Amino acid sequence: DAKTTQPTSMDCAEGRAANLPCNHSTISGNEYVYWYRQIHSQGPQYIIHGLKNNETNEMASLIITEDRKSSTLILPHATLRDTAVYYCIVRSYNQGGKLIFGQGTELSVKP
Amino acid sequence: NAGVTQTPKFQVLKTGQSMTLQCAQDMNHNSMYWYRQDPGMGLRLIYYSASEGTTDKGEVPNGYNVSRLNKREFSLRLESAAPSQTSVYFCASWAMEDTGELFFGEGSRLTVL
């Protein structure tokens, strides 16, 4: 599975959009981009995933560049409850192989 | 559905003792994973099982053994616990045929004195 690179930490003002970048320059054609977040010491929570097209759900939007070498997770109106560590991972959709998380980005939403 | 269930939730061991962390999922998932998370660190993959009857090493397998007992259960064993294995352990499962969402258990906090 391809490795990902994320900034260690980011701040965001409450009510503003939080844009979390992820680089995955070695991603292969059959690998999806997944985003998870972890609040405190709870188990990570699924947010969104995508292959080529931009995706949106009730939690967030995922923007994937045309060359698929990077992506951005967007939380449109960040709240204090969005303070968490956000993980970007890439993997093949139908293969049960290694799933490496990396260090993630610690997002702090401030009032 | 209970999802992914881990036991025990808390455990204190002395150096050299052995124990097994149990994980069970009721979602008929093929793939299961064991991760550890040290304070202030990200998740590191210990072992995984792509399907029933198969297991493979992850990033940090030393000091651990696993068993995929059946499709539901994936256990992690520490044969001789060391203080360096003090951590929070997470089990996860994934259905390849589904959306690809990874489901996590609540975690097991292990302290080795």
Explain how this protein is built:
The complex is a heterodimer of chains A (111) and B (113). By secondary structure, chain A is mostly beta strands. Helices cover 0% and strands 47% of the residues of chain A. Chain A is built from no helices and 9 strands. A 5-stranded mixed beta sheet of chain A has the order 1-9-8-3-4, with no helix packed on it. In chain A, strands 2-7-6-5 form a 4-stranded antiparallel beta sheet, with no helix packed on it. The termini of chain A are far apart. Chain B is mainly beta and 113 residues long. The radius of gyration of chain B is 13 Å and the shape is globular. In chain B, 35% of the residues are buried. The model of chain B has no long low-confidence stretch (mean pLDDT 92). The chains are: A mainly beta (111), B mainly beta (113). Chains A and B meet through β3, β4 and β8 of A and β4, β5, β9 and β10 of B.
- In total, the number of strands of chain A is 9
User: What is the count of DSSP helices of chain B, taking H or I runs of 4+ residues?
Assistant: 0
Largest sheet of chain B: 7 strands, mixed
Gap between N and C termini of chain A, in Å?
38 Å
Q: What order do the SSEs of chain A take from the amino end to the carboxyl end, as H and E?
A: EEEEEEEEE
Note the total helix count of chain A: 0
Which shape of chain B, going by the Cα principal axes? globular
